[in-house]
Records
---
Amino acid sequence: MKEDWSHMDFCLLKDAPSIPGIYFLMNDIELVYIGQSKNIRRRVSEHSGNWNCQLILGNEKLEEDSFDGLYYFECDYKPERKEYEKMFIEDHAPKFNFDNWCQYYLKIIAEMQRNHVVEG
């Protein structure tokens, strides 16, 4: 099922707005990360610099080119932003959200232990 993003604004990463809100990082048409920030532009630029080549699990690799645009909506109130972020992550399970990486990593470790690749 294709997600309907028509009710949200879209921009390229370089044009991310300096507003508080929820953002949805996209790789082509795939949703890969959901976040919230008091300044979307600053937070998105941090993703580009800090994540490059740092998370490598299996065949998944998060780099600057892992996302090319974002959908977003403005939300001033921090507790509301955090609640929206949590709800959207639970609903969509983007592959680059931290909890999903932890679950994926634990799954790999468990598989390696079953195959006696690492000691448990």
---
Amino acid sequence: MNANHPIGKDILENMLREHLTDLPEDPDLGIKPELYEKLRLVNDDLKNTQEALQANLKYILGCTITGSDDIHLLWQSPSYIILDDRDGILTEGLCDTIEFECDRTLIHQLHSEMATTIFRNFTEAPPQKGAVWIIKVPQHWAHATQSTATLLTDLIKKGISPTQALDYWMVEVQHKTVPNWATEREKSTQTIRKNIERATERIDNDSHSHRYTADHYFKPVYDGRYTVENRRIVTVNGHHLDQRTDLYDYSPSGSFSWGYRGAGPTQLAAAILCDVFGPNQVTHDMITAFRGFCNKTMGESDHWRIDKDEIVEWHGQYTDQDAS
């Protein structure tokens, strides 16, 4: 495997040779000159693709786990995360983020072939419906555990029991076979299958899955909503937004709110600004000004959404006013 991307060297060279045929060999290089140049360009594309995927991995996984089934998590391990881009939405976001030097379909084919190699060791390979993207898990990546917790929490919020959520996760996401998992759980295979069926039915019938557009997988998207218990929940790409009460304690309980001038809306403004710009760039005056923008944008609605672009645009206007 290349240090900069997950595609094996043999897979890469063999596929390029299939694309470049009937070309003279270079006696010094031992490979076709055209292949050598193509190899360099493809490696650059694979590296840039991997950097874009890794840089936005928190957002991509958050959207994948809490959104609709546009992108499906095929496999997650300490080394790889493999995604099934069923509606091409991740591909669209990548094309907006990087400029491919080579044919994008070749990059797809390389990821697909590498995934086939990985799944060759599985008892049963997970079904694929779209383009496959493989992400090398960055070293010391801190959000893997959080992503697992987010998915399990989200399943339970849909009305799935903790036991059903665990069985669904281990079989449908981690791809343990039902007999092996039933043995580990000391349950019958019939019980495990019934739990998975009930979980799948709940997921298919759920009407509250978030809908994301392509660019949302590559930038923060903030969602606020009321729960059935009338609690206010704010997430960033599916992950719970850090209240940042370690820096600002406008709300003693750390709870968020919106639609009025008070502790909860001020805490929310501080948390979002710290998440977008970093705490060192945030001031009290900026927080109170942004609270006004949030209240105007969100109102008292049961559900709202803003993304980083809107916040950056507001910040530009705030900076201009402050300078004048």
---
Amino acid sequence: MNHETPNDDRMNEDHSGDSLSGNAVGQFFVGVSEYVFHSRLGVVDTQLVDYVSDLLCRFMRTDNLHRVRFLNGRPITEVVGMLMEAKQRVGEAKREVHRHIGDFTLFWAGMYPEALREMRGPDRRDQFISYSEEGKRAYHVAALIETARDDLPCSLMQRLSEQFDMCAYGLREIRREWEHGVL
């Protein structure tokens, strides 16, 4: 069955209140993201940097990290399962699942790459996939699906696809900054 609306019960697309950039922790993520990307990496694409800092704020809540769900309401925690779910969707709903796959893979590949060994373990369905390649592909697919949302333009999704590895590196640097208290 194809799911035509992005408001499918298994993935709530209303992100109002999800971004924590208005509180102290959110402001920290915004500041450290801007410092790392602008000052250390020389990335001046403010829309891309804002997206990455918003990703950190959104994923502070595990319910946002595991937004894609099975019919029974249980979260889909493996990329392979999310890809299977994306095939069942059309339009903006499909775009949102692919965007989430890109966000999920970018977060783990960037912030906690050491966790990928377990997440891609021999008993997992993700064992044969590359988080980097699937993330790039997911953002590219999301970029191909037009949307009425002007806050997430297709051009941004395409830049995330093309600059996935650099964004993952930037996330690793952000983690290093907060772990070592350099700021």
